Amino acid sequence: MSRAQQRAAAIETAIADFREIIAAKGETHEGLEVVRRRLIALAAQADLFPAEDFPCPGPGEAGNSALYRLHEDEDGTYALYINASGGSYSTPVHNHTTWAVIAGISGGGEQNHFFRRGADGAPELIGGQLVTPGEAVAFLPDEFHAIAIEAPLLNFHLYGRGLEQLDAREYYRETEGEWAIFPPHSDIRDARVSAAG
Question: In terms of Cα–Cα distance, which of 166, 171, 150, 137 is closest to 64?
Fold first, then answer.
């Protein structure tokens, strides 16, 4: 079996586990904690997800990170991506409008800062965690975070619904002091492979 087929088989098994976990425990903190641990286990198979299979954008390409779709159910649920970042990347404070789990595979860390909407409407910092290989964070649909990446890395991003469907994600415009809506993410590279070959 090729590495791509081994990777696809590992992903199919993990996705089946994610479905079973959410069916049993729901889209709750308890359910996402179990999903978080299972995604860490998938990420531990780092030999199936080498950086050369998921390159960052090269010279002349836009941006310094690329998002690869590894799986998405036919109805748009259980969307699993690899984020390949070259570093020097950050996001504003935002939510996802679906549950989400981020796990480190290889490379540097992704600093996550956690926020809630304060009494004045602005984001209020409530904590944080560095996501490195062996670590992961999970979010319910209405929870907020911001990320900062300094060095090259590969991370898993798992969402309850695919990114193209997320047309109401809020983010905070720091300079304007107001919330706005992210457009749906569309620059995604397809990396789906069948375990059957």
Answer: 150
Q: Which fold has domain 3-190?
A: Jelly Rolls (2.60.120)
Residue 131: φ, ψ to 5°? -95, 110
134-162 pLDDT per residue, tens: 999 999 999 999 999 999 999 999 999 99
Q: Give the residue from 110, 156, 101 showing the smallest Cα distance to 132.
A: 110
Query: CA 162 to CA 39: how far, in whole Å?
Result: 17
Long-range contacts of 62-65 (CB under 8 A, 24+ apart): 62/187, 63/187, 64/88, 64/89, 65/89, 65/149
Position 197 pLDDT exceeds 80: no
The structure's pTM equals: 0.95
Give the count of beta carbons closer than 10 Å to the beta carbon of residue 87: 14
Is the pLDDT score of 72 beyond 70? yes
Q: Which tokens is 25 given? A: 């425990």
Quick check: 59 pLDDT over 80? no
Per-residue pLDDT at 38 exceeds 70 = yes
